[in-house]
From TrEMBL:
Organism in which the protein naturally occurs: Thermomonospora cellulosilytica
Domain of life: Bacteria
GO molecular function: catalytic activity
Domain Flavoprotein: 11-116
Lineage, top ranks: Bacteria, Bacillati, Actinomycetota, Actinomycetes, Streptosporangiales
Protein name: Phosphopantothenoylcysteine synthetase/decarboxylase
Amino acid sequence: MTEPDRRRVLYVIVCAAGPAGDVGKLVTLAHQRGWDVQIIATPAALDFIDTAALEAQTGHPVRSDYRKPGEPRSPKADAIIVAPATYNTINKWANGIADTYALGILAEAPNLGIPVVVLPFVNTALVS
Ligand SMILES: Cc1cc2nc3c(=O)[nH]c(=O)nc-3n(C[C@H](O)[C@H](O)[C@H](O)COP(=O)(O)O)c2cc1C
């Protein structure tokens, strides 16, 4: 049964690459399309983003670690975008490493049936 008033939840997973600072633009576009947006940052990405501004924009705390006991759960994701996705996170994800909260979410997504879109941001030397 569907929940009639529940907005679809989009997790935006942000990794530590230059475009991370522009993730607010993606939040705006997602809001325009009716998504409730939850930002998940890798710990390294925290240096690239304006956490307070994103929290004000999304209405949710930026998550970069597993919640502590007693802290509220984030709303469950209907879809996930990884943008920008770093070489580091892409390769750890491919190898089943889940040493960040972001990677833990990505590891669980297939079994939970959550679609994931990935926007790699990797220079040509790393790509090759
Ligand atoms: C200024 C700066 C820019 C970076 N840009 C990129 C990038 O575009 N792509 C990338 O894969 N790594 C980039 N890195 C390296 C990543 O930040 C580094 O590998 C980090 O460990 C990634 O952590 P994460 O995957 O957990 O976010 C950059 C690092 C710095 C300091």
